[in-house]
Design brief:
By secondary structure, the chain is mainly alpha-helical. The protein has nine helices and two strands, in the order ααααααββααα.
Length: 213
C-alpha cells in the first residue's frame, strides 16, 4: 500500500469491524477471513496480470473475493452454524476490507513476492489493531475473554468482571468503539513514524561511515 494513503485505508478497513459483535472470538474469525482474502486476492491479481486480463481486473477480483467469502462462510456454517448465523453479512466485510488495503483495482506491476510481502504486512497491521480492539471490547463490555470453540464460545470470566463492565460501558458501545478505533490508528501511525525515523537515521549513519572510510 502506498504510504501516503495508509492512514485512510487502515481507518476504512477498521471501520468495517465496528458493526461486529464485541466478542474476541468473533474478531478472530473476521481477522482470519481478512488474511485469507488478502492472500488469495494478491495471488489472483497477479494471475490476471499474467493472463493479460487487466481490463477486467476489478470485476474479476471482486467476483473472486465474493466467492472466497461465500466458500469461507460455508465452511464456517459446517463447523459452527451459530457463528455463521451471528456474523451473517459481516463475513463479507473482510473481502471489502482486503480490496481496499491491497489496491486490487490497480494493475499488478511488482514481483509476486514483493506484492505479497507488502499486502500481508499491511494486513498484519490491521489485524494487530483489530485484535486489540476486539479484546478490549470483550473485556470491558462483558468482563470476559472469549475464544472460538466447536458449537459455542469458550468463555473465560475475568476476576474483576463487574469492575471492567462498569468502567467500560462507553468503550463497549458503538461511539466508544469508534473513539477507540481512532485512538488505536493514531497510536499505530505514531509508532510506525518513529520506526521509520529510526530506520532512516540508522541508514544515514551507515552511509556517512562508509564515506569517511
Amino acid at each position: 500500500m502506498k504510504q501516503n494513503n495508509l492512514y485512510v485505508f487502515v481507518a476504512a478497513s477498521l471501520a468495517l469491524f465496528v458493526p461486529a459483535p464485541g466478542r474476541f472470538a468473533f474478531g478472530i474469525i473476521l481477522i482470519l477471513f481478512l488474511n485469507i482474502t488478502m492472500l488469495f486476492g494478491t495471488l489472483f491479481r497477479k494471475l490476471i496480470c499474467v493472463l493479460k486480463l487487466g481490463n477486467l481486473q476489478s470485476v474479476l477480483v471482486a467476483m473472486m473475493l465474493v466467492c472466497i467469502s461465500m466458500a469461507a462462510k460455508l465452511v464456517l456454517s459446517l463447523y459452527c452454524p451459530i457463528y455463521a448465523l451471528t456474523l451473517g453479512f459481516l463475513l463479507y466485510l473482510p473481502a471489502l476490507s482486503s480490496f481496499l488495503i491491497g489496491y486490487f483495482f490497480d494493475p499488478s506491476r511488482e514481483k509476486i513476492s514483493v506484492e505479497l510481502a507488502e499486502n500481508m504486512s499491511q494486513c498484519l497491521r490491521v489485524s494487530t489493531i483489530a485484535i486489540v480492539l476486539f479484546l478490549l471490547r470483550d473485556m470491558f463490555g462483558y468482563g470476559t475473554i472469549t475464544l472460538p470453540a466447536k458449537d459455542s464460545l469458550l468463555c473465560f470470566y475475568l476476576p474483576a468482571r463487574k469492575f471492567f463492565m462498569q468502567a467500560g460501558d462507553f468503550i463497549a458501545s458503538i461511539p466508544g468503539t469508534l473513539v477507540l478505533v481512532g485512538l488505536l490508528i493514531v497510536f499505530q501511525n505514531h509508532i510506525s513514524r518513529k520506526f521509520r525515523i529510526a530506520e532512516n537515521l540508522y541508514f544515514n549513519r551507515g552511509a556517512k561511515s562508509e564515506e569517511e572510510k
